[in-house]
Each structure stands twice: as structure tokens, then as C-alpha cells.
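Hypothesis: this fold can be encoded by more than one sequence.
Test: take the C-alpha cells below, design a sequence, compare later.
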């Protein structure tokens, strides 16, 4: 079979050097990549580097190899165009249809999915002109990945950093897998909780669970690749931040509740995939609890944590909001799941069987998606990414 053809556009920002790693990941995973840099980009990474890593020439002008009509053919033959980094200038040209070099011509002729990965200083990203250009590109069906927060050029820190190349690659892979389906979550804000809460007993001990957060992160990555603005409330995870996702880190169930309720005020969908502790210690010991010779430990008195899923389902901070819950069961899985769906009042409930060697920490999952209208969808054993896409497939038609 022919290799998927990817055009990697590189515009003139300091983050251009990171695109070399993205190019390596794309080529090593079996993609045929043609790099199209801007003239400014070559001030950061030379043409010889792009040509050596991709196996193709990396010209910037429409006047090179004119007989091959590159300004038309490159875009026409692509299965995906990704621009990383995309500067404020490049976004402005793309939004207004300007075509003064090979990359901007390629963007005009491409009829495949297009992904922009912005990188710039915070003030440039937040400027109304840039935000309007981003909104224009998203309305036209492009996926514009939210920049990361972190160290920028010099001593500056803020939003505008290029996400990690591995996470950009994951976005590209997911967009390619969807083909021409398009970003059906474009213009939507989704909130996802992930991981497992921890309830402290003393400064060194806590009550917790085995959740790794991988299913929630898969939901976040697939939503971003489908065009959504994503807020991920992550409880005690050790996973890299997904590209284009705003990550809010929390520890306890109370902290998770506060973060989810705050983010949900303007959310179109809330997916509660985190394993939230049902109980917490009634008292917190400010010093480490010591063993007493010849004495049994004092009982740990527990109190209930807030039921965040039931609260969100009942209050719906935004009209028409779709709420999805997850139920981890060890026995009578479907019966307990159906009862939980009625009790919680959510629109969808993803029910799966868990145990010491099941689901938690695994790269794969299997589940049944229960709907409030009585529909049931069995999801066979497979990657957590596949389950995540099926969840979004059911959320999209329910969005107001």
C-alpha cells in the first residue's frame, strides 16, 4: 500500500528545531513526509537537514522545479498537512488566503485535513487579531491545537510554547485515522476528569486507587484531534500533557470537584473518567501516625466524599450540556451499571469490569456504553483510544 502522504509545514519560529523530532516520528512510523519550510524557518533549521530527514527536497519558493507545478501538486496529493510551528504571521496569512510562498500556496490547494500547531509569545497568541484568525481557521474545518504553557524564548514563561513533538504526532495520527470525517467537535468545549484521587491520612499516607488516568487522557487526545477545546482535570497522573489540552492538576476528590465545576460552567460536555474516592478520612493527622508497641492501630473513621457525577448531572451548569460517567465494577457489572445510570442521572455511562489485572494501568479496555434512553453499545477489547472515539461518537449527536 502507498504510504500516507504528509506535508510538514514549518514557519519561522525558534520552535522550528522541534519539528525535526516530529518529522522523525512521522517518517519512522511509515509516512511519506515532504517538508515545506518558509524562508524564515531556514534561519533556524537549514534545508539540508529537512532534505536528509525526509528524503525529499525542501524548497520554499513556487519558482523551484516549476515544471512540476509544486505550488499546486504538493497540496493536491497530501493526506494531511500539519504546520508546526505555526507563527502568528503564518496563521494570519492562512486565515486570509494569502499565498506568497510555497507553504501558503500548499495550504490553499490542500483538500485534506489541516492541522496548525501555533507557537509564539503569550502576548501574540492572546492578541485579538490572532484569536480571530484562529477562530476563522477553525470555522473552516482546520484543527488548531492550543499551545502549551511553559518556557518561551529568553526568560519569558506563559501560554505559547510548542507542545511536545510526540504529542503533536499523536494528534496527526488521530486526524489521519479519521480521514475526511472532519473535526466534529470544533467550537465545543469539553471537560474530562482522569486519574485517581488520593485522600491523605497523614503527611505520608493516603487512601487511593489503581487508576493510571490513561483512559481519561485518551479521551482528551481524541477530543483535541476532533477539534474540541479540552480541559483535562488530572488527579495524580504521571502522563505527559496531551497536545492542545489545558491540564488542571488536582489531588483529592474535593479539589477535583472544585476544578470540574469551575471548568464546566461553559462546557458543552463533561466526561467523568476519573476514579474518585467515595470516602475520605474524617480526621487528618498532622504528624506521621506512629506504631505503638503492643497496641492495635486506632480505627480510621471515614466520611463520604461529594458525588461529583450526580451533582453535575442534576445541575447542568450549561443548558444542553451532555454528561458522561464511568463505572468501574467488579461483579454484576451490567446490573450495577444500569442502576448507577438511573441513580446518577447522566446521559451516558461507560461500564467496565476492573480488578488487579484488568483495565487499571492497561493500554486496553472493554466496556458497555449505557445510554439514558435505554440503548446499550458493547465495546470489544481494544485500545483505550478506540473506546474514547466511540464515546465521542455518542456524545456528538446529543450536543445541543
Amino acid at each position: 500500500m502507498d504510504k500516507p502522504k504528509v506535508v510538514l509545514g514549518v514557519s519561522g519560529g525558534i520552535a522550528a528545531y522541534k519539528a525535526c523530532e516530529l518529522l522523525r516520528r512521522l517518517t519512522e512510523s511509515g509516512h511519506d513526509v515532504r517538508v515545506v519550510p518558509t524562508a524564515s524557518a531556514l534561519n533556524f533549521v537549514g534545508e539540508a537537514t529537512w532534505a536528509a530527514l525526509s528524503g525529499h527536497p525542501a524548497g520554499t519558493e513556487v519558482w523551484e522545479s516549476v515544471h512540476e507545478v509544486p505550488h499546486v501538486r504538493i497540496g493536491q496529493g497530501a493526506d494531511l498537512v500539519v504546520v508546526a510551528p505555526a507563527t502568528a504571521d503564518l496563521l494570519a496569512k492562512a486565515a486570509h488566503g494569502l499565498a506568497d510562498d510555497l507553504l501558503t500556496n500548499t495550504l490553499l490547494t490542500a483538500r485534506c485535513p489541516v492541522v496548525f500547531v501555533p507557537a509564539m509569545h503569550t502576548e501574540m497568541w492572546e492578541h485579538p487579531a490572532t484569536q480571530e484568525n484562529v477562530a476563522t481557521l477553525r470555522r473552516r474545518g482546520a484543527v488548531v491545537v492550543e499551545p502549551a504553557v511553559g518556557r518561551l524564548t529568553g526568560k519569558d514563561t506563559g501560554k505559547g510554547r510548542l507542545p511536545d513533538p510526540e504529542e503533536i504526532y499523536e494528534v496527526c495520527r488521530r486526524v489521519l485515522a479519521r480521514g475526511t470525517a472532519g473535526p466534529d467537535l470544533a467550537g465545543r468545549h469539553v471537560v474530562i476528569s482522569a486519574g485517581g484521587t488520593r485522600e491523605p491520612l497523614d503527611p505520608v499516607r493516603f487512601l487511593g486507587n489503581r487508576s493510571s488516568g490513561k483512559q481519561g487522557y485518551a479521551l482528551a487526545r481524541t477530543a483535541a484531534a476532533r477539534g474540541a477545546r479540552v480541559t483535562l482535570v488530572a488527579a495524580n497522573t504521571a502522563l505527559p500533557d496531551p497536545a492542545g489540552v489545558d491540564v488542571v492538576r488536582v489531588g483529592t476528590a474535593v479539589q477535583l470537584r472544585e476544578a470540574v465545576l469551575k471548568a464546566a460552567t461553559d462546557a458543552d460536555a463533561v466526561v467523568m473518567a476519573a476514579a474518585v474516592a467515595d470516602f475520605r478520612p474524617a480526621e487528618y493527622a498532622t504528624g506521621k501516625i506512629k506504631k505503638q508497641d503492643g497496641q492495635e492501630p486506632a480505627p480510621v473513621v471515614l466520611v463520604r466524599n461529594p458525588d461529583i457525577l450526580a451533582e453535575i448531572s442534576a445541575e447542568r451548569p450549561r443548558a444542553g450540556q451532555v454528561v458522561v460517567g464511568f463505572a468501574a465494577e467488579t461483579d454484576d457489572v451490567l446490573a450495577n451499571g444500569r442502576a448507577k445510570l438511573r441513580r446518577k442521572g447522566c446521559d451516558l455511562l461507560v461500564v467496565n469490569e476492573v480488578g488487579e489485572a484488568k483495565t487499571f494501568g492497561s493500554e486496553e479496555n472493554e466496556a458497555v456504553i449505557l445510554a439514558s434512553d435505554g440503548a446499550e453499545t458493547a465495546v470489544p477489547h481494544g485500545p483505550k483510544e478506540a473506546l474514547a472515539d466511540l464515546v465521542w461518537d455518542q456524545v456528538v449527536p446529543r450536543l445541543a
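The domain at 5-181 is CATH 3.40.50.1950 (Rossmann fold). DSSP finds 13 helices and 19 strands in the chain.
Hypothesis status: open.
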